[in-house]
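Materials and Methods. Structural model of Major facilitator superfamily (MFS) profile domain-containing protein. The 455-residue sequence of Major facilitator superfamily (MFS) profile domain-containing protein from Penicillium hordei was retrieved and submitted for structure prediction as follows.
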Amino acid sequence: MGAVSDHQEPWGFQWRSSTYFIVATVAVALLTDMYLYGFIVPLLPFVLEHRLGLDPSLTQRISTALISQTALVMVVANPLVGYHADRSGAKRAWLLFGLAGALLGSLVLAMATSLWTLFTGRLVQSLASTCIWVVGLATLADNVPPGELGKMYGFVTIAIGVGTSGGPLVAGVLFDVGGYWVAWSSVLFVIVFDVILRFLMLERSCDPSGPVRAERAGQDPEREALLPPSTDPDQQTSGQAVSEKTGIQFYLCLCSNGRFIGGVVSYFCFAVLTASFDTTLPLHVRDAFHWGSLPAGLLFAAFQGPAVFFSVPVGLLKDRVGTRYPTTIGFALLVPLMWLIGVPGDERFPWASEERIGSIIYSIAVTSIGIVICLLNGVGMMEATQAVDEIEGRNPGIFGPNGGYSRAISVSSISWTMGIGDVRTLFFDRLSKSKIVRASVGRRDCEMREPMSRV
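The predicted structure was written out as tokens:
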């Protein structure tokens, strides 16, 4: 009689591997990344001018260089991280690796006393950020059923918003109250909380026959793509053996899918729109309405705040009807609203030039845009995920035993980085050469121009 060994599940296996706990862990990971990313912004003038002893006229140019470096590193690292994450299968180790990089980069930044160490710390942070975003979103795709992906991404969007706003806010307050090292102490608290969740999280099996993958293979045909799916005969071989697509073949196969291309283009446009607000709003309201930091900060709250209330309902809507119609409606509504915010302060529209009327119109338009862009949240990640499911549904095993979520999401992430990075770099480079730099760029203005999340 053969002995049967009992398989003992790890402690707390049910809740540690549950969808909601995995989503919470990924959400906190992205919150931590955005917190660390924005934390340095209000401290940067102090670091450059006092700790490094640089001339104040160089502050804006160094800031531009740091932004350019971050964008370049992420564009280069995204496909590399995506490839290795898909090949390894297990995602938790990559999330822990990203956390270690974030901690190391933060320590280097905190102790930086030269430009070399400052750029090194930001380099390490950028690599860690790439790992966290690509692997974190791929972990969601691996573990969340397709019918709940929009809702779960809504929760993640809220966490990202908290990290985006909380980083510069906490840094500024603690710096004013307790000084430089007291401000950096909050980073340790955030990272410790994050590492606890990441060690507790247990991934589900990545087996293509698992429940999540099986459900994706038979998803509802009513879930339409942003663009029609490809009619490439090479992809119409359901039921036949197919060879695994690797290297450049993977990306050619993916880019032949209309859903994926639509998501990437939409994500790029969304990034350009977001970056345009981050970089121009403080200066526009100062010139048009003579507003200072507080009113501009409140406008940013009106722009970012609706995501807290509408992200989950919009995610539920996308789970029911797909991403095509909400995204199309979102871009269509943005056309008149983007025109409207350019009216106040423009002498060609004298009826809106009066400060009181113009400020009211501008505030309403910004708030409305903040509501409408909730329809665009997650479009890149969701379309990339569903494109992979669509291709693998027709050709099982075409992307290997671990699927292609990480590589697909890395391409989508590149489109976001290029859109948001190019706008900010061009803006700050132009601003650094202007005569108003020292008048408009102080600790508070740097805080207001904190980059938004890559939602």
